[in-house]
Structure formats: structure tokens, C-alpha cells
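stage 2 :: seqdesign
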């Protein structure tokens, strides 16, 4: 009989076993697992995001786990969930059991909408994770395209033009930009393509930027940031390259240009500049991966200009807990 309990992230042995199980349960080619320190920090939570983490044990063997992230300053009705089962123990109901326990915990926290992702290779018709989500009653909300840029790569020359300039830094934004950069960070939800789930803008302030920079350092990540400065001196766009020290992966994270400043080639300028600024960080790495809404044609065009190639899809699923079937209540 499967027993599901809360994970004590502070317990070294329990967390190590949890992470090892998670790592062997993830498709490492399309969606590499969070590194050991990174995931532990995520699950430990902070004043902006807390997590609920569960582990499923059958007999004396851990067979699966789950966690959900709950933001504390915004989107108080939503949660983002991850469920995984050891490949050797799938199709035995462990994932469904984890979901039932997780759903109860999220309802107790007042969360009514839960989202998650399922990935598949570009040549796959359907993936196990997609079938699993649909079996649980989740519906497709948005499809993201996953692209990779093999390294080394030579970014095109794309200097800022029309009076715009670029500013670059690693980690914490310079004090002069901190308030404006926090505002930019809060807008990605509103400016990126979304599905039907209502996501509010994220809460960002200078204090959260400072916390994030400390967390990057403590988890072994370096963040290369490049921002766009308008002719009148305000920050109007940015991009992030994230480089973990425990793998050969590089991640292209948020890229945003404010609507009124689009049409000046800033998306390409930002991403190309970030690659040049981070040349010492990415040397010897295997690739850069990035996810974009499959409908975001302007950003996809920028990525293809940089040399990115399509390798898979990440489907965002969602479920309204108030509409869940009686068996899930």
C-alpha cells in the first residue's frame, strides 16, 4: 500500500533521496531536472513563494514525489504543480495518488486553479506526461515550443539602434536600475502570450531582486542580464541568461520589450548581447535552451535568427479544483 507523506526539506537524507528519485524520473534531454541545491532552495521557500512537497513510498521504497509552488504576494488562487514517478513504477496509480493528496493540500491553502507542464519531443504524437495530465482531468491551456542552440555559437551582430543603448550586469541589478528593473520583471505575465488561466502580474520589488541574487549565488547559478535603455533614459526591456555551475546547460529565461518600444530590433539586440557578455560563462557548455509560447512568432523569429532549433513542446495544463470530480475531492 502506498503511503504519502510531506517531505522534510531540512532532512539531508530525506531530501537527497527525493532529489535522486526526481532526477531519474525527468526527461533530461528536453527538460533537465533542477540541480540539487537549486531544487532544495525552491522547496524551502521564502517570503514570496512557498512550496508543498510530498513523497510516495510503497513498502520501503520511494516511488514518486510531487511539489507545488504557491506565490504569496500575487496569484493567490493559483498553484503550479510537478508530479513525478520512477520509470520502473509507472502505471500503478502512484502518480494519481500523489495528485489526490496534493489537491487536498492545495485546497486547504485556498488554491483553486492548478497548472503544470508536460513535455514531448518534436516528433512525438503524445507523451506519457500528457496522457497522465488528461487522465487526471487537466485541460490544455497553452503550448510552448522548446528550442536549443548548440554551443559554441556565434551570435549575429545586432547593435542597439534608433537611440537605444544596452546595459549589462551579472546578478543583482545596479542600484540605479533596481526599481525600474523590478517593474520590468513584474510584467512578463501580462506581456507574454497566455492561455485561459488568469495569471496576475508577479510581485517584484528591490528587496526581491536582492533575495534572488543571493539565491542564485547560493545555488550555484550566474545570471547574465542585459537591459535596453530608451533614449529618454528609462529601462524598457531585458533578457536573462542563466548559467548553473553543476551542469553543461545554459538557460535563456525571460526576454521582454515593452510594447511601445517594439519594432526597433531590441529583442535580437538583447539576446545577442547577452551571449557575447556571457562568453566566458558559456565556454565549454553544450547548449542554450529556451521556451516560448508556440504562438509567439516575433520571439521565435528572433530565436531562429540566433540559430535555435525546435526540439520539443511543453504543454501547459490546468485544472479548476472547484470543478474536480467527486473522486478527486
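stage 2 :: out
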Amino acid at each position: 500500500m502506498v503511503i504519502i507523506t510531506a517531505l522534510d526539506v531540512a532532512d539531508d537524507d530525506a531530501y537527497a533521496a527525493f532529489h535522486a528519485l526526481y532526477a531519474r524520473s525527468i526527461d533530461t534531454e528536453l527538460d533537465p531536472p533542477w540541480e540539487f541545491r537549486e531544487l532544495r532552495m525552491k522547496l524551502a521557500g521564502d517570503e514570496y513563494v512557498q512550496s508543498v512537497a510530498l513523497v510516495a513510498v510503497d513498502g520501503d521504497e520511494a516511488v514518486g514525489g510531487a511539489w507545488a509552488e504557491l506565490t504569496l504576494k500575487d496569484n493567490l488562487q493559483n498553484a503550479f504543480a510537478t508530479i513525478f514517478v520512477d520509470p520502473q513504477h509507472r502505471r500503478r496509480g502512484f502518480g494519481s495518488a500523489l495528485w489526490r493528496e496534493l489537491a487536498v493540500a492545495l485546497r486547504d491553502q485556498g488554491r483553486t486553479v492548478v497548472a503544470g507542464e508536460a513535455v514531448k519531443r518534436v516528433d512525438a504524437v503524445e507523451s506519457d506526461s500528457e496522457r497522465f495530465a488528461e487522465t487526471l482531468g487537466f485541460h490544455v491551456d497553452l503550448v510552448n515550443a522548446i528550442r536549443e542552440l548548440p554551443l559554441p555559437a556565434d551570435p549575429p551582430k545586432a547593435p542597439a539602434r534608433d537611440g537605444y543603448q544596452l546595459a549589462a550586469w551579472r546578478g543583482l541589478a545596479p542600484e540605479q536600475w533596481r526599481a525600474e528593473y523590478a517593474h520590468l520583471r513584474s510584467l512578463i505575465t501580462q506581456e507574454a502570450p497566455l492561455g485561459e488561466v488568469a495569471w496576475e502580474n508577479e510581485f517584484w520589488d528591490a528587496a526581491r531582486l536582492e533575495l534572488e541574487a543571493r539565491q542564485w549565488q547560493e545555488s550555484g547559478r550566474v545570471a547574465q542580464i542585459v537591459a535596453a535603455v530608451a533614449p529618454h533614459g528609462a529601462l524598457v526591456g531585458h533578457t536573462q541568461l542563466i548559467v548553473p555551475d553543476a551542469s553543461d546547460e545554459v538557460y535563456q529565461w525571460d526576454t521582454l520589450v515593452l510594447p511601445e518600444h517594439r519594432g526597433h530590433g531590441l529583442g535580437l539586440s538583447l539576446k545577442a548581447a547577452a551571449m557575447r557578455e556571457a562568453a566566458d560563462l558559456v565556454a565549454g557548455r553544450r547548449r542554450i535552451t529556451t521556451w516560448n509560447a508556440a504562438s509567439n512568432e516575433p520571439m521565435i523569429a528572433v530565436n531562429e535568427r540566433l540559430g535555435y532549433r525546435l526540439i520539443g513542446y511543453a504543454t501547459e495544463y490546468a485544472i479548476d479544483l472547484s470543478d474536480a470530480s467527486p473522486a478527486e475531492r
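stage 3 :: structure notes
- Residues 2-144+315-328 form a domain with the Aminopeptidase fold (CATH 3.40.630.30).
- The chain has two domains: 2-144+315-328, 150-313.
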